[in-house]
Amino acid sequence: MTKKILGLDPGLASLGFGVICTESDNLELLDFGIIQTPAKTDIGKRLQIIYEDLHQVLNTHQPDVVAIEKLFFYRMGNTILVAQARGVVLLVLAQHQLPIIEYTPAQIKLALTGYGAADKVAVQEAVARELCLDCLPRPDDAADALAVALTAWFQR
């Protein structure tokens, strides 16, 4: 059975997405990228951009399931902004009635590298290896989203 998995790495400035398609043990990369919002734009407008662009990603790819990185608290100011963007993401996913799977950063690192405290490069190398890419996926937020999608595939 074919299954499309959308991985999301929520953020306000840059929201990463990655879409993979799985069939049995076969894995195919369909798309990846970022939804970017301008820094000097009103927060409401930035959230609206995420809302509209994520709807477009969902309508284009029509995933069966969405895997999303759980919110990680590290700097209060940034965490609040990410939480606002994440709220919009969850709203859009609910509107599309999509099942959601959430993973912590440590779970994602462990699934891809075997080490829950792996660095970003190790995770990107694992993503590139699993998806047979010639180079590391960029930008970082898109690579992180692919890592989330792959984690969902590994955990099936």
Notes on the protein architecture:
- The protein has 156 residues and is an alpha/beta fold.
- The protein has one domain: Ribonuclease H-like superfamily/Ribonuclease H (Nucleotidyltransferase, domain 5).
- 47% of the residues lie in helices and 24% in strands.
- The protein contains 5 helices and 5 strands; from the N terminus they run E-E-E-H-E-H-E-H-H-H.
- The chain has a 5-stranded mixed beta sheet with strand order 3-2-1-4-5.
- Helix 1 crosses helix 2 (76-95).
- The chain is globular and about 40 Å long.
- It starts with a strand and ends with a helix.
- The mean pLDDT is 94.
Lay out the secondary structure.
Layout: E1 2-9, E2 14-23, E3 26-36, H1 43-61, E4 65-69, H2 76-95, E5 100-103, H3 105-113, H4 120-130, H5 140-154
Parallel strand pairs: 1-4, 4-5
Antiparallel strand pairs: 1-2, 2-3
Helix pairs in contact: 1-2, 3-5, 4-5
Q: Give me the count of strands.
A: 5
Instruction: Output the number of helix runs.
Output: 5
Q: The CATH topology, please? A: Nucleotidyltransferase, domain 5
Sequence of secondary-structure elements: EEEHEHEHHH
Strand content: 15-25%
- In whole angstroms, the N-to-C terminal distance is 13 Å
Shape verdict: globular
CATH homology group: Ribonuclease H-like superfamily/Ribonuclease H
Overall tally of domains: 1
Major sheet characteristics: 5 strands, mixed
Main location: cytoplasm
Family: Belongs to the RuvC family.
Catalytic activity: Endonucleolytic cleavage at a junction such as a reciprocal single-stranded crossover between two homologous DNA duplexes (Holliday junction)
GO molecular function, one term: DNA binding
